[in-house]
Amino acid sequence: MLAIKYSIFALISTLFNLLFQYISFFLYSGFASLYLAMFIGTLAGLVVKYVLDKKFIFYHKPKDKKDDATKFALYSLMGVFTTIIFWGTEIAFDKIFDEQNAKYLGAVIGLSIGYIIKYFLDKKFVFIDKE
After folding, report:
1. I want to staple 94 with a disulfide (CB 3.0 to 4.6 A). Which of 28, 62, 103, 129 is the partner?
2. 126 pLDDT band (50/70/90 cuts)?
3. Which residue, among 104, 75, 78, 79, has the nearest Cα to 92 in the 3D structure?
4. What is the per-residue pLDDT across 47-97, written as a single tens digit (0 to 9) for each?
């Protein structure tokens, strides 16, 4: 059941990421627009995924705002490596394939790989019981 829930949350976060990328491209299509869109999408997906993972995957209840901020910072840090995978795949698909929407397929593939790795990183380093 955990794998199904995590997969659904990864899908929701991916949709937020892609929606915010799409909106970014709609608003700006100039120089470095792909990189700006990826950054904005990443932030949107990160926040959604953190809230879902914290509450419904790892059942973490922060002691206070400082604890929550610390967890979010650590959660974000664990996402750096997986973001490189995601961004690298999206950029590669954008450059290799002569199709405007190929970048989105690359994003989905990169995010899927990244979320699998991120689960194990978060389980081992972020949401650990210290009681």
Report:
1. 103
2. very high
3. 104
4. 999 999 999 999 999 999 999 999 999 999 999 999 999 999 999 999 999
9 contacts 57 by C-beta, under 8 angstroms? yes
Place of tokens 């955990």: 2
Count of other CB atoms within 10 angstroms of residue 119: 19
Q: Is the pLDDT of residue 131 over 80?
A: no
| Six token digits for residue 22 | 């799409």
Domain ranges, ordered by start, for the chain: 2-126
Q: What is the pLDDT of residue 87?
A: 96
Query: Cβ atoms within 10 A of the Cβ of 83, count?
Result: 20
- State the DSSP string of the chain: -HHHHHHHHHHHHHHHHHHHHHHHHHH--STTHHHHHHHHHHHHHHHHHHHHIIIIIS----SSHHHHHHHHHHHHHHHHHHHHHHHHHHHHHHHHSS-TTHHHHHHHHHHHHHHHHHHHHIIIIIS----
* Tokens encoding 89: 């795949």
